[in-house]
Amino acid sequence: MNQHASHKPDYEKELRRAGVRITRPRKVILRILTETDDHPDAMEIFQRASAVDSSISLSTVYRTMKLLEEMGAIHRHAFEGGRARFEQADGDHHDHLIDIDTGDVIEFHSNRIEELQEEIARALGYDIVHHRLELYGRKRRRT
Amino acid sequence: MNQHASHKPDYEKELRRAGVRITRPRKVILRILTETDDHPDAMEIFQRASAVDSSISLSTVYRTMKLLEEMGAIHRHAFEGGRARFEQADGDHHDHLIDIDTGDVIEFHSNRIEELQEEIARALGYDIVHHRLELYGRKRRRT
DNA sequence: GTTTTTATTGCAAACGATTTGCAATTGCAT
DNA sequence: ATGCAATTGCAAATCGTTTGCAATAAAAAC
Ligand SMILES: [Mn+2]
Ligand SMILES: [Mn+2]
Ligand SMILES: [Zn+2]
Ligand SMILES: [Zn+2]
C-alpha cells in the first residue's frame, strides 16, 4: 500500500462523471499523470505513453490534456521558452521557481505574497481571476 | 518643449553606439516606441509603422524588436494568449495586471513582494535572475 | 560626390508548438 | 451482437516568430 494512496485522484471516475469515454489512450495518459510528480510537457507525456502503447498519438495527448484542463483536473503552465508543462491540480495553490540552467521546477507558496497581490488588485479596482508568479533563478554558488 | 523631454531615451544614439545602422525602417519603429506608452505587440507596431512607410515589413519589426531587446532598450512580455508585447525599458521595474476582458495592461510595483521573492529564492538556495508576476483580473463590479 | 563595402531589407519559406478536419475505429448503451 | 456517437491517428492547417537569400541602401573610403 502506497504511503500517499489516499491522495491519488481518481481521474477515471471524474471522466465518467463528465460523460467522456474511458479509452485505452486516456487510461495510459492518466496513469502517467498520476505516477509523476514533476511538470512534464506534452512531448514527455507522449514519449512515456508511447513506451506503453506505441500507437498513441501526440494529438491524443494534447486533446486529453485539454480535456483534463477544462475539467480542472490539471494545470497548464506556460513557463519561459518552449512547450507548456502540466501538473496535477489536486494539491494546494503554489507558484514556481525555475532553475534556468537545468529546467528544474521548484514549488513554493507565500501567503503574504498572495495577500499583497489581492490588496494591489483591490486598490486598482480589480478582482484577480488568476495569477502567475514565476521566479527564474540559478543555484547560489558557495563562496 | 515637451513636459517629459528629459526622459525621452535617445535610441538612435544607443544604436549608433552598438554599431548598427540607422535605417529608415528603424527610425520609424523607434519613433513609434518612444511615442507610445502602452504595451503594443509586433503586429500593432507593424501597422503603426506601415501608416508612416508602407514598405516596412513585419520581419523588420521583429528584427528591430529583437535588436532593441538584446541592447536592453526594451522589454518583451509573453502575457497569456497571443503575441508578445513590448515596452520601453527605461522606467523602473514593475509588474503587470492584465484586464482579461479588454486586454488592458496596468502597471504596479510592490517593494514588499519583491523582497519576499528574494527571501523565498534565498531560502531555496537560489539567486533570482528575473521573475514574472502577472495578475489577470476583471474590473470589480459596483454592488 | 562617387565608389566601395557591408549591414539591412522585403519576401517567401521554414519554424515549433498546438490544433483541427476527416475517415476509420472503438467504447458502450441497447 | 448491433448501432451509433465519441474518439482516434494521421496529415494538414494554424499562429506567432524566425530565417535564407538576393536586392537595396547606409556609411566608410576615396
Ligand atoms: Mn507545480
Ligand atoms: Mn509595463
Ligand atoms: Zn500564487
Ligand atoms: Zn516584480
Describe this structure in words.
The structure is a homodimer of 143-residue chains. Chain A has 143 residues and is an alpha+beta fold. Helices cover 39% and strands 22% of the residues of chain A. The first copy, chain A, has 5 helices and 5 strands, in the order ααααββββαβ. Chain A has helices spanning 11-17, 24-35, 42-52, 58-70, 111-123; strands spanning 74-77, 85-88, 95-99, 105-108, 126-139. In chain A, the strands form 2 sheets. In chain A, strands 4-3-5 form a 3-stranded mixed beta sheet. Chain A has a two-stranded antiparallel sheet with strand order 1-2. The longest helix of chain A has 13 residues, at 58-70. Chain A is globular. The relative contact order of chain A is 0.12. Mean pLDDT of chain A is 90; it is low at 1-7. The A-B interface holds A 78, 80, 97, 99-100, 106, 108, 110, 112-113, 116-117, 120-122, 124-140 and B 78, 80, 97, 99-100, 106, 108, 110, 112-113, 116-117, 120-122, 124-140. Strand 5 (126-139) of chain A pairs antiparallel with strand 5 of chain B. Bound molecules: manganese (II) ion (2 copies) and zinc ion (2 copies). One manganese (II) ion is lined by residues 39, 87, 94, 96, 107 of chain B.
